[in-house]
Amino acid sequence: MAVWLRIVFLVSGLPVWTQVLAVYGVSRVWGWLVFSTVAAQQMVSPWGEGPLSYSRFLGLWDAGWYEQIAHEGYPTTLPRDANETVEQNTWAFMPLFPLVAGALAAGLGTPYMSVAIALALFSGFAASWAIYLLFGEALRRTGYTRRIQRQHGAQTHESAHTLALWAVALVGFAPVSAILQVPYAESFNLLFLATTLYLLLRQRYFLLLPFALATCLSRPIGVPLGATLGLWWAWCLITDVYQHRAPWMRAFTQRAPQLMSALAVCGFALLWPALAWWATGQMDAYTATETAWRGTHLTVILPWFTQSYHYLGVIGPMAFLLLLAGGVAALLTPVTSRVLPPELRLWCACFAGYLLLFWFPQSSTFRMLLPLFVLALPIVALSTSRAYRYLLLLTGATGQWVWVGWLWHWKQLPGGGDYPP
User: Fold this and answer.
1) Over the stretch 223-249, which tens digit does the pLDDT of each residue have?
2) How far is residue 393's CA from residue 5's CA, in Å, rounded to a whole number?
3) Where are the domains of the chain?
4) pLDDT of res. 154
5) Which residues contact residue 113 at a Cβ distance below 8 angstroms, ignoring those fewer than 6 apart?
6) Where are the alpha helices (DSSP H) in 143-255?
7) Over 70: is that where the pLDDT of 94 sits?
8) For the chain, how long is the longest CA-to-CA vector?
9) Rg for the chain (alpha carbons), in Å?
10) What is this structure's pTM?
């Protein structure tokens, strides 16, 4: 792996987009190797009687829900058990990825799963380019490379391109990035999210709206995205008034397009729950479906303590609080502020806060952290040592093997079922 990456980095004469796609491509070749190897070890599972092919192995778990949406759409009546409790159903899954994949499959006359795998893979490549542009814009905004030159001299100067390319590599080799080549919506969503954040940095508030809409309709991250834009508008308004001494009315008028964009994204966040309500006649159709997976009603924050205690005993809640404090500290470190503009730090805080409030922690939590991909930039920037950066990639690649082998690979638990990825 390190040899392949070194070849890619050394061929600096290639166009930038070629370098980015080549680096990401190496990570997906590694993902193919991991999935193929683990698939050969798969025994009896709900999807087959023995070892599975690469493509069949990618079609496990929630991929079946997406395929059902492509073929059947969404139910107008929520399924219920004998106690009238809503059961698991397709309303928990956003529509954009399965509907696009289904339309392509119908148009090409190709099986859905083959098209969905290809769509996820190509979306990941497109997302890598969007992430590179986002990282490059972030470094331009913070002036990070100029600070490195002043502090350490020209001999150790590192271009924004090199740092951004290393960060893209780290995103591609992150432990949960194996999900970017399976027929889930993650790579599709990552493309639109990275583009939205890039346009936010460029202050293209109206241009980002279609990408924000696609983000909200591909994965349930509209609430933290709307919060990010809304809080950033409020911060900009207050800064204009108190730092730049602008009159309130003038500042409000000048920031009106930004406010309208933020309100639109907040509306996008509510669109899918509203559609579920309209289609089923049940106001809480979406949240009732989401909580069907946890078996309890929606509860904020408390599940993090109860679940950590369930898995780790009395040290669980303390470990959770330490992790929470560490996450806050990471956002406040000098290296983070040197490479991430405040908009991206605000996004990380809003998304982490959203998970803290509404997420029910379980084995899928690792995958849920993927939208925090922007933290790859300060992690890479922590040191210019190539040994350090290769160690990061090696650790991430090993983590992919662990994630696929532990969670994607089906192993029935004593009580039935298995931990979902």
Assistant:
1) 999 999 999 999 999 998 888 787 888
2) 10
3) 2-9+16-408
4) 47
5) 55, 58, 59, 63, 67, 183
6) 144-152, 160-173, 186-201, 209-216, 222-242, 248-254
7) yes
8) 71
9) 22
10) 0.94
